Amino acid sequence: MTAAFSIGEALASGFRLTRRRPLRVWAWGMASVAPSLLFGALMLRLFGAIAMEDMASGEPSAAFVGQMMQFQVWSGLANILQALIWVAVTAAIFRAVLFPERPAPFAGMKVGMDEVRIAVVALAMIIAFYAAAIVIGLLAFAIGAGLWFISEMVAVALGLLTALAAGLAVWALLLRACLIMPASVALNDFAFVAGWKLAKGQVLRLLGLSLTIIAVVLAIELALLGIVVVVLFLAAGINVFSLAAMLDQGAPPEVDWGVLIPWALAAFVPLSWLQGFLTTVMMAPYAQAARSLLAQGPQDEVRPVALD
Amino acid sequence: MTLPATDCAFEGFRLTRRAPKALLAWALAYAVFFTLFFLVAAPHLVTVMSLVTALEGNTNPSIEEIQPLMQAYGAMFAWGMPLAILFGAVMNTAIARSVIRPEEKQFGYLRVGKAELRVLAVNLIVAVITGLAAMAVFAIVSVIAAIALTVPALWLVVVLLSLAGLALIIWLTIRLSLAVPITFAEGRIAVKESFAMTRGVFWPMLGMAIIAWIMALLVALLGSAVAAPLSLLVGGMDQLAGLENAGVTQMLRVAGPALAVSLVVNAVLSAAQIAIMYAPFSAAYLHLKGAPRG
Predict the structure, then answer these.
(1) Alpha-carbon span B272 to B27, nearest angstrom
(2) CA angle A279-A295-A117, nearest 5°?
């Protein structure tokens, strides 16, 4: 029998995990949102400190340049922090799906070999993606340039077609590689080969899974946005759309910090939970798919004991 | 013979746990090297920084504007390169020694002797071989690119040849990557032996090298996250721009704390990175040789 995983079961795993461990999901969300708070605080500090003349001036002052450089350094740090937290949260979600009975202090977030493996695999995939994009760009350019003097239209069309075909091939390769990360956690090793083999013959299923995840996340976000707009309109009489149009036309927003900050802090609780929930819905299905495929694999291959 | 690529890739981390004092010694060696390099190349470095600052915002600099920058770079590397090659040989040997003969831990495995001279020679030979291959590829691609200016259909050949050339250089680098551990372990310059030993294990070796390289990259990223705010807290390095023709004393007076922070952070990071990147090859050598690991 050919091994396969169920898209429905994989998709449901994120929701099941959220129902089983709501506090853990919230902790993941809080950890994920924390660098954004740091970033927001930095923005407030910077733009609060900049004189309006500096913002308007074509020739910025040395103090302004200094503040911008400081801001860049700190925001770079916030970005690295965000990436590290993403690694820790992803590893925690994968472990929660793959080894549900294992104790998980600190919501399963830690720094260990799983995290190192995920960071290495993620970085390898990013580098491979960019390398592939450069190669595709070069090939498309070469085909386009080669045919330019024969027919400009054919050259552009064939160049674009090559880029499109190669782009689809890269997408297929990324789908084929997307089980390497959860497989690395499941098998307690760098599963570059095992994860690759695991996804053999599953690319269309994985495509279906990834598209379904995107659709579900978008639907949840749109529904929540609709609820927020209605609640704001009914409860506070704020027409969000006219507010957006006003901001669009350059009307200076008057911010009452005394009111905004308590509201923002109150909003942090549901928003951080939402962030955790969406991250779980997006990442857990891949772990579930890997778990299911590993469980169906040949019995003589190395498998973690917790897999059924 | 198979090679446990991921196991070997972690030899650098194992090394830092097994011999933390050696890592400190290497960081100290790097600090000395950077200081020497700074003393030798600092005036040129300041010129480079000033020229780069002057060129900022110039989206289309002319050859005349770029030439002084290239000259300053050339002068910096002409002074710094021999020092870097010698230091590289000492460090490569120390790392190979720490994995292949872990019991010889005196002076953090650092020595200056026959082994270092042999490694220096083998490093030069490997650099010449890969350099010649790269030059040959570049020459062929350049000639075809020149023809492609008049025969545009050849651009595809140029791209495919460039990719093939890159693949050749990577293949050559991997096949020659055991030259240093073999040379150290067997006490003779061994280039052909590296080719023989890596036969049939190219892909695991490449995988091991990629994992080790990415882990070194991660260490660099984490290091930069620590280094940037630290450097900023002590004033940053921008103060060096505009100090061309200044003496070392004046530079130290203006940007001393920032330079000190940069020296310490870079020394520790470089020592960690070189261990993570190079130790796996010695571990792979021991594994392929069937020798016990320390």
Answers:
(1) 8
(2) 50
Q: Please, which residues 76-95 of chain A have a Cβ atom closer than 8 Å to chain B?
A: 76-77, 80-81
Residue pair B166/B134 in contact by the 8 Å Cβ criterion: no
Measured between alpha carbons, how far apart are the two ends of chain A, in Å?
A: 17
The rounded mean pLDDT for chain B is: 87
Amino acid B202 reads F
Please give the Cα distance from B78 to B80 (Å, whole number): 6
State in Å, rounded, how far the first CA of chain B is from the last one.
20
Give B19's DSSP letter: -
Phi, psi of B60 (to 5 degrees): -135, 70
Q: Which of A27-41, B58-72, B154-168, B256-270 has the highest mean pLDDT?
A: B154-168
Residues 200-259 of B with CB under 8 A from A: 207, 210-211, 214-215, 217-218, 221-222, 224-225, 228-229, 232, 236, 238
**A56: helix, strand or coil:** helix
State whether the Cα torsion A12-A18-A24-A30 is positive or negative: positive
pLDDT of residue A62: 67
The pLDDT tens digits for A143-188 are 888 787 778 888 888 888 888 888 888 888 999 999 999 999 999 9
Work out the minimum CA distance from B65 to partner chain A, whole angstroms.
24
Query: CB under 8 Å to B8, separation ≥6 — which residues?
Result: B208, B280, B283, B284, B287
B269: nearest Cα among B207, B225, B239:
B225
Q: Which ipTM value was assigned to this complex?
A: 0.74
Q: How far is residue A182's CA from residue A194's CA, in Å, rounded to a whole number?
A: 11
CB neighbourhood size of A144 (10 A): 22
Which residue is associated with the tokens 């040849």?
A: B161
3-state secondary structure at position A198:
helix
pLDDT recorded at residue A3: 79
Model confidence at A308: pLDDT above 50: no
CB A280 within 8 A of CB A172: no
Query: Quick one: what percent of chain B has pLDDT higher than 90?
Result: 56
Q: Which residues from chain B sit within 8 angstroms of residue A119, using beta carbons?
A: 218
Distance between B153 CA and the closest CA of chain A, angstroms: 4
Closest-CA residue in chain A for B158?
A142
Res. B85: pLDDT tops 90: yes
- B67 vs A: CB within 8 A: no
- Tell me if B12 sits within 8 A of B271, measured CB to CB: no
CB of A65 less than 8 A from some CB of B: no
